[in-house]
Amino acid sequence: MVNFGNAYKLKKLFQRMEQKPTINYEDFEKLDLRVAEIKEVEDIEGADKLYKLTLDVGELGERTICAGIKQHYTKEELKSKKIILLANLSPKKIYGIESQGMLLAAVDKNNNKVILIQPASDIENGNIVA
Known about the structure:
This protein is of the alpha+beta class. Helix content is about 20%, strand content about 35%.
């Protein structure tokens, strides 16, 4: 008997692993990638994989995002960590919270390892990633 839930998950995983279509430079220019610092990390009621993160994005102010990294990082590991934020992603309600962007992370093909993309050295919050 085939477990269609697992088959669906495998299909989605393989789709994510395929190379995306080529984009032009103008499409890349639309991305607003910024350095952000995680100021607060909170659990989200009913969500076992998500944290609510409050970020300092420098001149852009404070942002709230929901991130599915709970199984990979503790609250203590995330607090004060500098990350890269996709700042101009359309807001989306997740568990009643308006998520105002998306952090960047590298993920292995089995979704077992998630590594946050971070600046190699200290840089001010809000600086542009180019």
